[in-house]
């Protein structure tokens, strides 16, 4: 089994505070509007009238923190016309800004919305798993920032042995398209991808 | 809708029209040469062929506006092993070079007829591979609105429909020129033009038929697939519904009604003056219809996931 770095995310503990997102922006010095890590709140259910009161009817909401999944089948790298996107020996998927022509084809292909255009540099950018920190033996910025300790990283196989094989809950896409290097502990109300009855509750500009 | 998407609309439409035009010119030249000799066939198609070169050049210039960093554009052919976009650009460049070389040789009558013929057919075949590659670019699993058999079918329909009607207009313009500059050849050229226009009209009716049959099947299949597919259909039929309606009406008018008039008026001698007032608007109307279809294609696709 080849080496594959992966993110672990514990949805049952996530409060949706977005500190991971902010830490990522800070560490990577991202301009406003560019979010390599995003936190979605997904929810659903309804209210029904019981006499004079409104009662909750299967109301639920939970948060999902997501970035590039450094997929085992990186469709972004497969479709990139300039081969600017590649997979390192440790499985981390990186974009070479020197080669990128900013055609945004990877953005069309990736179901996680990971590659995003840097409007200033006019090239595609995305989460690089803080490989510069990892190469020094340090943790990715988002992992260190999480106050609930619900983000972690490590070897994909080891994470699966510890936490199971779940790699998708709503609103993430099912894992079959790209084989994401992602291990999830679901929230107790989490819905399986493709079978969700809720919707993303964030404002569009939030994510 | 932003500039980058207009760039793609212009690029794909102009390239497809050029490939279709190349085929129409090849077929027209082949049959014209069999009946009236190579010289008359050249007179029918040479000027239209020359006009293709700036159209293809324009397509490639337009494509650069899609890029964030156009100065790196030459790198776009470096992932041929796995990227259909790389393959599209490669075959696009080969097509452009072959058409330009052939048009120049044909214009100056450089090289033997056989050599020019080989280059021309090669260009036409590469054109088909180009449209095939172009279709494959959009067959992405994350994009249900594109990931459909309807993408290659409608790309090829656009290719031959626009190619046919563009060349229909070109044949009329060419005849107008021949009549004024080389009146000795006008009789044979008149017959050739009328015959070519009749086939253009038949092709247009058949191809718009294909488009109008494909469209509802495609929409129904897409709506019954994934949630993202349904969301795409809701966009196409909802906020972009007027674009879809206008696209269908214009295609029907341009490639249906006008093409029938074109066929009728190309039957008998003496209606040459009328042909222009049918062939030109038919081309323009269908061009607008195809641009609208492409606008929908690039705006009403909803990606799976987040």
Structure, explained:
The complex is a heterodimer of chains A (207) and B (306). Chain A has helices at 19-28, 75-79, 105-109, 131-135, 141-145, 156-163; strands spanning 5-10, 38-50, 53-66, 85-87, 93-95, 116-118, 123-125, 151-155, 182-185, 199-200. Chain A has 207 residues and is of the alpha+beta class. The mean pLDDT of chain A is 96. Chain B is mainly α and 306 residues long. Chain B is built from nine helices and no strands. Chain B has helices at residues 3-36, 38-64, 84-108, 113-137, 150-181, 186-223, 227-237, 241-265, 272-299. The mean pLDDT of chain B is 95. The interface between A and B is medium-sized, with 37 and 30 residues.
Write the layout of secondary structure elements.
The complex is a heterodimer of chains A (207) and B (306).
Chain A: E1 5-10, H1 19-28, E2 38-50, E3 53-66, H2 75-79, E4 85-87, E5 93-95, H3 105-109, E6 116-118, E7 123-125, H4 131-135, H5 141-145, E8 151-155, H6 156-163, E9 182-185, E10 199-200
Parallel strand pairs in A: 1-9
Antiparallel strand pairs in A: 1-8, 2-3, 2-10, 4-5, 6-7
Chain B: H1 3-36, H2 38-64, H3 84-108, H4 113-137, H5 150-181, H6 186-223, H7 227-237, H8 241-265, H9 272-299
Helix pairs in contact in B: 1-2, 1-4, 1-5, 1-6, 1-9, 2-3, 2-5, 2-6, 3-4, 4-5, 5-6, 5-9, 6-8, 8-9
Summed up:
The complex is a heterodimer of chains A (207) and B (306). Chain A is an alpha+beta fold and 207 residues long.
Strand-residue fraction of chain B?
under 5%
| Assembly category | heterodimer
Question: What fraction of the residues of chain A are assigned to beta strands by DSSP?
Answer: 25-35%
Radius of gyration of chain A: 18 Å
Instruction: Tell me the helix content of chain B.
Output: over 70%
Strand order of the largest sheet of chain A: 8-1-9
Supply database-style keywords.
heterodimer; A: alpha+beta; three-stranded antiparallel sheet; 6 helices; 27% strand; globular; B: 306 residues; 9 helices; 80% helix
